[in-house]
Design brief:
By secondary structure, the protein is of the alpha/beta class. The protein has one domain: Carbon-nitrogen hydrolase (Nitrilase/N-carbamoyl-D-aminoacid amidohydrolase, 4-Layer Sandwich). Helix 1 runs parallel beside helix 3. It starts with a strand and ends with a helix. It has seven helices and 14 strands. The chain has a six-stranded mixed sheet with strand order 5-4-3-2-1-14. A six-stranded mixed sheet has the order 6-7-8-9-12-13, covered by helices on one side. Strands 10-11 form a two-stranded antiparallel ribbon. It is globular, with a radius of gyration of 17 Å.
Length: about 260
């Protein structure tokens, strides 16, 4: 499967401008032969609490409609981070749309970053499900930004059959070393592909890390963006690489569930 990673900047609080990127990058990814195009966390509102509170939309709102149209008009699956207003609250959500623009899965961020200055727990409700989405024959495990620090989440997704572990992020540049180490670790320890799609630019004084990347099950970097540029990164996920590594080192079957579950 060929995938496109849309490493973009956002205009904080400008839904129209931000959501226009869905169509732009979906078209570019389709022209590159991609089956899926993936956008970062909070691609619609940017990552500033006041803008999220003001601009978060229900599923019937303009952000979701723009994502659905971009997927359907370009006949490409589309994954995007959005501010979802539902059930009387706001969720930090990743939506997975198929090539017809239909919702085939979504994930609401389960680990909320509670440290200053963001305090996500004051903005969002936490999700309670870990979905594995299976469009086009590839099994995707979904996650968002801070989730990267919790290996248990990715092991649970892997045990549910996930082959590509996805993290849509607005990761800060100040913790770039953690992004580098943890994305590789999540791939290696689960013997699965890791796809990390990050933001560039500055939101409310917070500089974004960029460095969107695809990591093979062996921890090798298939493609990677820089820390400043908007760009479309393209990579091919060859599941034979995963099968070969799991056969070579059967780490998952060597787990001692009698000791640690």
């Amino acid at each position: 499967m060929k995938i496109g990673l849309a490493q973009i900047d956002c205009v904080v609080g400008d839904l129209e401008s931000n959501c226009a990127r869905f169509s732009e990058y979906a078209s570019r990814a389709k022209a590159e032969g991609c089956d899926v195009v993936i956008f970062p966390e909070m691609s619609d509102t940017g990552y500033v609490p006041s803008a999220i509170r003001q601009c978060a939309q229900p599923w019937s709102g303009p952000a979701f409609a723009a994502a659905r149209s971009a997927a359907a008009e370009n006949a490409i699956s589309l994954i995007c981070g959005i501010s979802e207003r539902a059930e009387g609250t706001i969720f930090n959500t990743v939506a997975f749309l198929d090539a017809a623009g239909e919702l085939c899965g979504k994930y609401r961020k389960t680990h909320l970053f509670s440290a200053p200055p963001v305090h996500e727990d004051d903005i969002f409700a936490a999700g309670s499900e870990l979905p594995v989405v299976v469009p086009g024959g590839l099994k995707w495990g979904l996650s968002i930004c801070y989730d990267l620090r919790f290996p248990e989440l990715y092991r649970a997704l892997t045990l549910e059959g996930a082959q590509a572990l996805l993290n849509c992020s607005a990761w800060p540049a100040s913790r770039a070393a953690h992004w580098d180490c943890l994305t590789r670790a999540r791939a290696i320890e689960n013997q699965a592909f890791f796809v990390g799609v990050g933001r560039v630019g500055i939101d409310g004084g917070l500089k974004m890390n960029g460095h969107s990347r695809v990591v093979t099950p062996r921890g090798e970097i298939l493609c990677e963006g820089d820390g400043e540029s908007e760009e479309l990164l393209v990579a091919e996920l060859d599941l034979a690489l995963m099968d070969e590594f799991r056969n070579e080192i059967p780490a998952l079957s060597s787990r001692r569930v009698d000791l640690y579950g």
